[in-house]
Input
Amino acid sequence: MESNKDIYILAIESSCDETAAAVVKNGRTILSNVISSQIALHTIYGGVVPEIASRKHIEKINQVINQALDEAKVALDDIDAIGVTYGPGLVGALLVGVAEAKAIAFARKIPLVGVHHIEGHISANYIENKELEPPFICLVVSGGHTHLVVVNDYGKYEVIGKTRDDAAGEAFDKVARAIGLGYPGGPKIDKISKEGNPYAIKFPVAKVEGAPLDFSFSGLKSAVLNHINMCQMKNIEINTADIAASFQQAVVEALVSRGMEACEMYGMKKFAIAGGVASNSAIRQAFAKECEERNISFYYPSPIFCTDNGAMIGVAAYYEYINGVTHGYDLNAVPGLKLGERI
Ligand code: KG4
Ligand code: ZN
Output
């Protein structure tokens, strides 16, 4: 590899309900980040319908890639490697991105780099924090994942805590549905909570026996449902904003306590958050305060880089590429790909 040459990665993300592509220069400069969201399409069903997601990806993918190249003012000839999410995610959705990336890599004779979706989320922190280097601890909170991770180096991850049941985003989405806010629940709970009292109802913050860094959100979700049932039975008016704010407060407490405990246990002075739920304003505020009190540097991506996007995949692909990790044309979608695993 020539040492002073700029490296351009074209990255593709299609693991769930966003068709996304980006061009990333030298790992941390985002030249374009195009996201075609399917949220409106899935809203009427109250959640993502896998087959609809796959069909929409196939319709949109070339358009999104063309736009990403145009906005970056580069041609396929300028691209050094193709990065693509190959897991975890919905298999049919992943296959669209993987097949597209393989086709481009094959046609242009350029390297193919399969990226772990969650490693992409973590890497989103490198975009706006140019000084951030591993090691650090990252809390990944998305629709499907809640993981506490030690980022030992680029591409070297150690999971030190995870959810035993629902992911944080899943809890937001389910509670939002229960209180009639609809899908996707996270941003709606975030917004309405600003009008509610976070201490109006004391919801439980579950601890996992013998695993201080693990999470459990299913009890919290049930507690919210029980509260609503109790109000209905006793003819007490349901205050949606108070329920939302109190639920959100319980999630904040669970995340902050484990996050700070992890920093303490590992003697780490750098802490980052990532994933769709990391764009939650109460979560960001609480971590900023707690980290400041402990003299820990706190990192978080802008909301556009928290939810699914191609830029984060391009960043992760860059570090894989410069470390010599590439894939063959037999790359397949791996819906249950584990963090740190290389297939
Ligand atoms: O990372 P992401 O876009 O997709 C996955 O990889 O899962 O995360 C989507 C999740 C959804 O559950 C959504 O409700 C949640 O992130 N989310 C939020 C907020 N914005 C998105 N949760 C809480 N507050 C938000 N502001
Ligand atoms: Zn995601």
